[in-house]
Amino acid sequence: MDTTRDLISVFGGIFALLTVASLIGAGLKWRLSPAAAHPVIDNLNTRIKAWWAMILLIGAAIWAGKGGVIALFAFISFQSLREFISLTHTRLGDHRALLWVFFVFLPLQYTLIAIDWYGLFAILIPVYAFLLLPISAALGADTTRFLERAAKVQWGLMICVYCLSHVPALLTLDIPGYAGRNALLVVFLVLTVQSSDVFQYVWGKLLGRRRLSPAISPSKTVEGLVGGVLSSTAVGAALWWITPFTPLQAGLIALVANIMGFFGGFVLSAIKRDRGVKDWGAMIEGHGGMLDRVDSLSFSAPIFFHIVRYWWA
Amino acid sequence: MSVDHLIAASLCGFAKLLTGVRALWLGSEPVARTRVYFANHRSHGDFVLIWASLPPALRQRTRPVAGADYWLTSPLRRFLINRVFHGVTIDRRPDRQGPNPVEQMGAALVAGDSLILFPEGTRNLGEGLLPFKSGLYHLARAHPEAELVPVWIENLGRVMPKGSVIPVPLLCTLSFGPPLAPIAGENRADFLGRARDALLALAPPPD
């Protein structure tokens, strides 16, 4: 039950996998298209490179401790929210509400995790922001599409801040027999959900035939979905030893998180489609924006948090 | 590096950090040519953002056209527009006594500089574009050698709307379109309409 040793094992494993992936990527490039550009392989290689950066960043945050993880996710929320609101229609009258969102509710939500005030953490955005933001917008005295604007701002805040903040909130749970090991729950959730995205991409590229829903996302296939969710559920089950769960429980919980994660990407694709864009931004090379990378995490984190809190804490 | 350069560089850095600005060159390239970049105008930061997204070599030779009635009214603004941005300050009043704005802008083009111009003439607080003032037409006729490049600035008006003190950190995108084809005998209204359409074509679809 040595947390540091387990973290080193898990991250060592990820680095080994990334090394293999980088070698395969370089091999494919060398075999198939050494000189000319090859869209799929080049994109694969930029994605792998971005994974190195992201894993190193998460590793550094966990190494820095609770404050590091909170700061990392506060930054992820900030960047996602920027991307979300940037593509959302708001008007001059929303300016003050947006200031509240970025400079009060976002920092406050993460501060509540730092000071371990769960009661307010759980209702700050669904209750207080929900009531206060439309008041601020109404004081802007512009009624054009008012309800739509207020709803969009609240929606962005829920997805990008409230939901994502449940990842670092895992650090505040008191789990009997698991004290000091909560960082491993963060690793478990992030790894299963993100590996599900990777496996869906890989299975989709290898076997993808039947389009799942061309109207929403042209690249998602039934084969990619099934293969991806099953593979990453296996990853979750195999990681049971870093969690307070049995292997069966770990697999089931990973399955729930992966299904939620899939639908997170699906729902946010519907919004992107409606706005006529492919990606939320261009921050992470090969992946698009921050929100493109964490949409699945946003949908799975609160559910995972509740499962653990209800049955284990 | 002089103090003016340092201030210019740090303002550009701040603008980039705040807005994460992304320049999309859609039909033109960032190359050293005598150009008039004409853009939509929602915020005082507009030209800073265009300026910041040009490569440093081009930035040195690109001057914003700015209203004297705003930019010359306080020592700080005067310092910024003259020393830091090397702006061409023009008198926008119809009953002005001083130099002709089109001639002032033309002199900068003849000297080999490029210009940043907001043909709406003032900050637009609504959606879309206001009708264009005729300055762009006269300038284009007098200087056919200058390329007219439309630049759509997306979101900066929401980052810092008129009257606000604190900016909202939204992401901005600048779309540089293809240069406007030469004018050849076109009348004023047709030319201005064409220029306006070229700029609107770069705007994201309304929702």
Automatic annotation (TrEMBL), chain A:
GO terms for cellular component: plasma membrane. GO terms for molecular function: nucleotidyltransferase activity. Pfam families: CTP_transf_1. One of its GO terms (biological process) is peptidoglycan-based cell wall biogenesis. The chain crosses the membrane at residues 7-30, 50-76, 97-115, 121-141, 153-171, 183-203, 224-242, 248-271. Keywords: Membrane, Nucleotidyltransferase, Transferase, Transmembrane, Transmembrane helix. This is Phosphatidate cytidylyltransferase. It comes from Zoogloea ramigera. The lineage of its organism: Bacteria, Pseudomonadati, Pseudomonadota, Betaproteobacteria, Rhodocyclales.
TrEMBL record, chain B:
Keywords: Acyltransferase, Transferase. Pathway: Lipid metabolism. InterPro entries: Plipid/glycerol_acylTrfase (IPR002123). Residues 35-156 form the Phospholipid/glycerol acyltransferase domain. GO terms for molecular function: 1-acylglycerol-3-phosphate O-acyltransferase activity. Pfam families: Acyltransferase (PF01553). GO terms for biological process: phosphatidic acid biosynthetic process. SMART domains: PlsC (SM00563). The keyword ATP-binding does not apply. SUPFAM superfamilies: Glycerol-3-phosphate (1)-acyltransferase. The keyword Hydrolase does not apply. This is 1-acyl-sn-glycerol-3-phosphate acyltransferase. It comes from Zoogloea ramigera.
